[in-house]
């Protein structure tokens, strides 16, 4: 039994996966658990994933697929597995199909846990997790029993996850609708999709799940000729290339606009800074002139010089004196 469980957050994938694990003895492979385990063990893939997460980037699909390959190679996955949290989009689904084909473990079914949105809100807001044993409960539909059955016989220490508030839940459901819901059409085209009503009592949901899984397998799609597959691959490659080129052009224009805006802002700020410095310098010079006043002697000397200049301008020599001076200068020149 090789399954992928699909469903919105709070649809009960984790709870029903635990029951399938107990009943059929196959492991539940969660991409989130694999990442946390690899990071904790500091494996090469874990270090690569940690570097991406520390930088605020999504972990590359190749890294997650490599972790899934390692996990499915363990002996407990020889009889089957339950994939939870991966794939999340059509590109990841294509990559997963190639991986499972390489290791000879193709999917048997993809089960969609279909739940009404109002029920999802009630489930998520009522979800609680035990700090000791990490088991998940719901205060409405699956509360912990009265008899303590946590690790060491202690009562469960429950807490609500920060992402289980109404605003965060609405955002998570929106992201699911945009990214993961298209997988429904993807797997329906491949005749792998099975849908169950995941609302109501947990036992009833599990009974419906077992009934769907035990039903007759859907007929496989007829094999496509190699030439047709190659042409389809070439068309997909062309579409991806066009999309990439369009994205690059759009990003280039955006960067150019941002650079121009930053440059304009920088020039405006520089002009403002220069004006501020000029004003400050003018105010500083005026303050210095007011503080550093000339001494009494300096002011008296300046007054005398100004008076002498005015007298010289007022008392001009007569024409006779000027003539005599000119004659004396001419005589001195002749003597020489």
User: Which sequence of SSEs, written as H and E, runs from N to C?
Assistant: EHEHHHEHEHEEEHHEHHHH
Q: Please give the alpha-carbon distance between the first and last residues.
A: 132 Å
Give the overall shape. elongated
Largest sheet, if any? Answer: 5 strands, parallel
Q: pLDDT average, as an integer?
A: 78
SS class: alpha/beta
Supply the CATH superfamily name of the domain at 2-27 and 74-217: P-loop containing nucleotide triphosphate hydrolases
Helical fraction: 55-70%
Q: Percent of residues in beta strands?
A: 5-15%
Instruction: Report low-confidence residues grouped into runs of 5 or more.
Output: 217-224
> Can you tell me the CATH class of the domain at 2-27 and 74-217?
Alpha Beta
What's the helix count?
12
What is the rounded Rg?
A: 43 Å
CATH topology of the domain at 2-27 and 74-217: Rossmann fold
């Amino acid at each position: 039994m090789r399954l992928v469980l699909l469903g919105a957050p709070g649809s009960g994938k984790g709870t029903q996966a635990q029951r399938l694990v107990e009943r059929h003895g196959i492991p539940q492979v969660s991409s989130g658990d694999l990442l946390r385990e690899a990071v904790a063990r500091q494996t090469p893939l874990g270090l690569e994933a940690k570097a991406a997460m520390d930088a605020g980037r999504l972990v590359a699909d190749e890294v997650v697929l490599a972790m899934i390959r390692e996990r499915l190679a363990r002996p407990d996955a020889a009889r089957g597995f339950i994939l939870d949290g991966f794939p999340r989009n059509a590109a990841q689904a294509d990559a997963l199909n190639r991986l499972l084909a390489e290791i000879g473990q193709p999917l048997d079914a993809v089960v969609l846990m279909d739940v009404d949105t109002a029920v999802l809100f009630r489930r998520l807001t009522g979800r609680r997790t035990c700090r000791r044993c990490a088991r998940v409960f719901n205060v409405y539909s699956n509360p912990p029993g009265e008899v303590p059955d946590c690790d060491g016989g202690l009562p469960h220490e429950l807490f609500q996850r920060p992402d289980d508030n109404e605003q965060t839940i609405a955002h998570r459901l929106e992201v699911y609708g945009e990214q993961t819901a298209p997988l429904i059409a993807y797997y329906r085209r491949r005749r792998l999709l099975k849908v169950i009503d995941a609302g109501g009592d947990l036992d009833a949901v599990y009974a419906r799940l077992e009934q769907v899984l035990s039903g007759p397998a859907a007929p496989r799609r007829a094999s496509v000729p190699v030439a047709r597959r190659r042409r389809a691959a070439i068309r997909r490659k062309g579409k991806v290339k066009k999309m990439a080129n369009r994205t690059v052009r759009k990003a280039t224009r955006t960067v150019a606009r941002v650079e121009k805006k930053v440059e304009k802002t920088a020039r405006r700020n520089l002009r403002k800074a220069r004006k501020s410095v000029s004003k400050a310098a003018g105010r500083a010079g005026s303050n210095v002139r007011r503080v550093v006043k000339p001494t009494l002697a300096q002011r008296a000397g300046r007054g005398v010089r100004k008076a002498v200049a005015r007298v010289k301008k007022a008392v001009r020599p007569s024409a006779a004196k000027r003539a005599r001076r000119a004659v004396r200068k001419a005589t001195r020149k002749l003597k020489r």
